[in-house]
């Protein structure tokens, strides 16, 4: 179905290209005008295709959540569907605040790199420089770098190592909890203070961390479905517990704030150019249970095929999320939800997120190829 859409898309835009080339009297050698026509045509087609395909995802999956797509500052698609609060029946809107789970890890990674930019730490430093519990023989070789890309070997279960440090990828929430503690030691400020400064730098107006949140429009977290649901208690404060930790999964945000984050981060407003490159550089590899084989940088996943993209999924009970950025077209895709039917397993309740990622990848490839072809 999607390959057919791609073909139709290409065919339609090919006719537009021929039309542009066949009207010299109107556009002559004015490449600026011609390119503007091409860009506006492509954008209009993108909006139409996204509306058709993602509206279909909403209807097929009965998705309760928010999906928003922004390209180079222009909104291509946005829809909220369902309830913010299943008890009061308050509806979701663009101000709804969601728990974003492990999408939080990129904020922690960026805070570490900001401290490196300030000369307060180095990612090659041993963790033992900051945390005394790493000074025993089992942990003394672990570097900050290895916590960032999940090669530290630290196990989330028990107090030992899952593997030898630096050897293999083993996803570790506990490793990111330790990164949060390093941020506090190196900066002399709490994680929350560092996060607040970062949110401000990125223009994120409605974001917070779990243990200081006191705003409105929290989208809660629920298990089940819209007719039979169970509210996750003590949200969002439970995300600050040691078992989860704010640094690994306790950031709260909105679709619009995550767009602001993506725009600020990838345009170089947060990190120095060489540091941003370090953040995005593939330094380990993971077979993600939902998204397949991916590269991993520092708190960010990297697409192993076309189109180039950076992304991260997140899940804390009742709150599946996915944040994607396509650098070639400066396109930001945010998918947030506040209910999950765990009886279906993650591959079941992440279906809407996977479908939207598939749709946007196909359209992204089409747009990139066609723009190159049409502007020749």
Spell out the key features of this protein.
16 strands, 376 residues, globular, alpha+beta, 8-stranded antiparallel sheet
Compact overview of the structure:
With 376 residues, this protein is α+β, with helices and mostly antiparallel strands. It is built from twelve helices and 16 strands.
Q: What order do the helices and strands follow? A: HHHEEEEEHHHHEEEHEHHEEEEEEEHH
Major pleated sheet: 8 strands, antiparallel
Q: What is the strand tally?
A: 16
Gyration radius (Cα, Å) is 22 Å
CA-to-CA gap between the ends? Answer: 29 Å
Description:
The structure is a single chain. The protein has 376 residues and is of the alpha+beta class. Helix content is 40%, strand content 18%. Strand 12 and strand 13 (310-316) form a beta hairpin. The chain is globular.
Q: How do the strands and helices of this protein lay out in sequence?
A:
Elements: H1 2-21, H2 24-27, H3 31-61, E1 65-71, E2 74-81, E3 83-85, E4 90-91, E5 98-99, H4 105-117, H5 144-148, H6 173-187, H7 191-202, E6 208-209, E7 222-224, E8 229-231, H8 246-249, E9 251-253, H9 255-266, H10 273-280, E10 284-288, E11 292-296, E12 301-302, E13 310-316, E14 319-326, E15 331-337, E16 339-340, H11 346-349, H12 351-374
Parallel strand pairs: 7-16
Antiparallel strand pairs: 1-2, 1-15, 3-4, 5-9, 6-9, 7-8, 10-11, 11-12, 12-13, 13-14, 14-15
Helix pairs in contact: 1-3, 1-12, 3-12, 4-6
């Amino acid at each position: 179905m999607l390959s057919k859409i791609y073909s139709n898309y290409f065919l339609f835009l090919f006719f537009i290209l021929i039309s542009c080339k066949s009207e010299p009297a109107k556009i002559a050698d004015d490449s600026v005008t011609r390119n503007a026509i091409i860009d506006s045509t492509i954008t209009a087609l993108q909006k139409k295709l996204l509306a058709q395909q993602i509206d279909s995802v909403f209807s097929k999956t009965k998705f309760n959540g928010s999906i928003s797509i922004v390209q180079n500052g222009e909104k291509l698609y946005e829809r909220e569907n369902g309830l913010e609060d299943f008890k009061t029946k308050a509806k979701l809107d663009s101000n709804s605040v969601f728990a974003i789970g492990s999408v939080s890890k990129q904020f922690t990674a960026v805070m570490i790199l900001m401290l490196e930019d300030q000369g307060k730490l180095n990612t090659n430093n041993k963790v033992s420089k900051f945390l005394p519990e790493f000074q025993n023989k089992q942990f003394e070789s672990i570097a900050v770098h290895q916590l960032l890309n999940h090669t530290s070997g630290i196990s989330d279960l028990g107090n030992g190592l899952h593997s030898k440090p630096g050897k293999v990828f083993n996803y570790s929430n506990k490793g990111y909890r330790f990164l949060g503690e390093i941020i506090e030691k190196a900066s002399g400020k709490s994680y929350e203070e560092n996060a607040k400064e970062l949110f401000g730098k990125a223009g994120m107006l409605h974001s917070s961390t779990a243990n200081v949140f006191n705003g409105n429009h929290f989208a809660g977290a629920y298990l089940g479905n819209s007719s039979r649901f169970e509210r996750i208690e003590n949200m969002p404060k439970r995300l600050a517990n040691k078992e989860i930790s704010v640094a690994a999964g306790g950031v709260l945000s909105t679709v619009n704030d995550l767009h602001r984050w993506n725009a600020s981060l990838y345009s170089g407003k947060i990190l120095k150019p060489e540091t941003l490159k370090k953040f995005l550089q593939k330094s380990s590899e993971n077979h993600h249970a939902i998204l397949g084989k991916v590269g991993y940088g520092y708190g960010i996943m990297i697409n192993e095929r076309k189109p180039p993209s950076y992304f991260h999924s997140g899940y804390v009970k009742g709150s599946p999320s996915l944040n994607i950025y396509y650098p070639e077209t400066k396109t930001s895709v945010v998918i947030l939800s506040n209910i999950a039917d765990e009886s279906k397993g993650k591959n079941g309740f992440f279906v809407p997120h996977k479908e939207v990622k598939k749709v946007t990848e196909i359209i992204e490839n089409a747009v990139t190829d066609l723009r190159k072809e049409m502007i020749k």
